[in-house]
Amino acid sequence: MEPSALATLLSMALAAFLLLGLIKRKGSRRGYNLPPGPTPWPVIGNFNLIGALPHRSIHELSRKYGELMLLRFGSFPVVVGSSVAMARLVLKTHDAVFIDRPRTASRKHTTYGYADITWSPYGAYWRQARRICVTELFSARRVASFEHIRADEVRALVRGLFAAASSGRSGAVHLNRDHLSTLSMNVITRMVLGKRFFGEGDDAAEGPVSTLSEFKWMLDELLLLNGVLNVGDWIPWVDWMDLQGYVRRMKKVRKMFDAFMEHVLDEHSERRRREGEAFVARDMVDVLMDLADDPSLEIKLGRVGVKAFTQDLIAGGTESSSVTVEWALSELFKNPAIFATATDELDRVVGRCRWVTEKDIPNLPYLDAIMKETMRMHPIVPLLIPRVARDDAAVAGYDIPKGARVLINVWTIGRDPELWDAAEEFMPERFIGSRIDVKGQDFELLPFGSGRRMCPGYNLGLKVMQLSLANLLHGFAWRLPEGMKEEELSMDEVFGLSTTRKYPLQVVVEPRLPVQLYSL
Questions:
Q1: Do 395 and 90 meet the contact criterion of CB atoms below 8 Å apart?
Q2: What is the pTM of this model?
Q3: Number of domains present in the structure of the chain
Q4: What SS3 string covers 118-155?
Q5: Is 455 among the annotated ligand-binding positions?
Q6: What digits encode the pLDDT tens for the residues 368-399?
Q7: Exposed site from 289, 410, 459, 519, fewest CB < 10 Å?
C-alpha cells in the first residue's frame, strides 16, 4: 500500500479505536470459532502486515498461524488457505459455498459491470457464461481449429529473430519481454478478433488504438488495476476519496478499451452485412455475436456482454502465456544443465530438419516437466482469484462467516517442503513419471485454479506456452548478455493480477538450425 494512503488510514485508525472492540464483541456474540490470525488494527485491519509482494507476506504469516488463517483487510474478514488440504476443502468439498466473487471497484469499472467471464457473480448469467466457454469458445474442436494460427505466429517470431540476427555483425539478437508479449498478443487477437491488429513492430493500427505499445500499456494497466489492493474496496466508507487514485485510472482505461471494442464490433458487423448469407463465423467475436441475441439463452448476452467477454479473452490469454514463458526461460538460464537436457530432447525427438509442432508436444516429457516446474515456482496468479463465502461454512473445524473473502496461496503450496524435495530449487525431473497435472484435479499444482471457477481457457493457454517455448529452445542457441553470469540474473518479481519479473529478461539468441528453415 502507498505510504500516503497508509498514513491517512492510520490517522483514521487512531480516531476510531473503539471500532475494534465493537467488532470483537459482535463476533463473540455470534459464537464463531474463527481460524487463528494476527490481531487487526482498528479500521485498517491487517493491511500493515502486507508488503509489496502480498503472497510472500501472507506466506510468512501462515508459517506462524497455520494452513487456515484469518486476516482482516479493512472491514472484511479474509480467510487464507495455504495447503493442499485447505485448497481441496475450499475449491472442491465446499465449492458451492465459495463459488462467488467479491464486488470491487476494478471489476465494476473495467468489466462492464461484472459482465465478463472471470468476475461475474454467481448466478444464472455466470452459469451461462461458463457454458458458452466450455461448449463454444474453448471446445476441443474450436481450439484445434486455431492450431494453424498458433503455428503461424511462432514462425513469425523465429523469422523475425533470425532476420535481426542475420542483419547484425555478431549474428545474434537480443530477445526481450516485448517479443514474447507480441507473440502472445498476435496469437490471441487472431483467434479472438480474426486478425492481427498490430504488426511485428510498432506499426500503426486501424481504429482508436494507434500503436502496439499503446495497446500493451492498456493491457498492463488493466491487469495491474485488477490486482492492486484498493483501499476503497476494503474500507467502503472511504471509497469516495479514491485515496490511491486507482478509480480515476480505472475509468480512463475503461474508456480506452471501450473505444477499441466498439471498433472491433463495428468491423465484424460490417463484414456480416457485406457477406450476407455467405457469412461464416471465423473467430471468437463472430461466435459471441451469433450468441448475442440468441433467443435460447436464459439471459441476453447483448453488445455489452460481447465486449466484456472479448476483453476478458484478450487480457487473460495474452498475459498468462508471455509471463510463464519468460519465467521458464529465466529458470533455464539459471540452470544451464537443465537447458542442455531440454535441447537434447528436442534434437532427439524432433531432429534439426523441421520445427516443433503441437503433435510433438506429447512426446516431449521433459519440456512438459519444465512447464510444470515453472508454474510450481512462478504461478501465474500466486493468490488465486478471490472467492466469497455465500453462506456460513465450517472448514477444518473452523467457522467461516458469510461474506468472508477466501484466498488460496498457491505460491506457498508450491514451496511446501512436505510436498516437494528441495522446494526452492528448479528441478523439472520431479515431474517425470509423476501423476501430477495442471488440470485442477491435483491440488499440489493449481496454476489455473480448480472447480467450477477454474480458468476455462487453460488448455488453449498451455498449447501456446508449450509451442512457444519448444520452438524458441529448438531454433536458437541462447546466452546472457556479455559480461553477465547466471548467478547475476535477477529473479525479483512484481505482484499484480499476474506476477511478472521485476526486470524484464534480456538475452542473446543465435540461430542453431539450417538456414532454410527460418524462411518457412
A1: yes
A2: 0.91
A3: 1
A4: CCCCCCHHHHHHHHHHHHHHCCHHHHHHCHHHHHHHHH
A5: yes
A6: 999 999 999 999 999 999 999 999 999 999 99
A7: 519
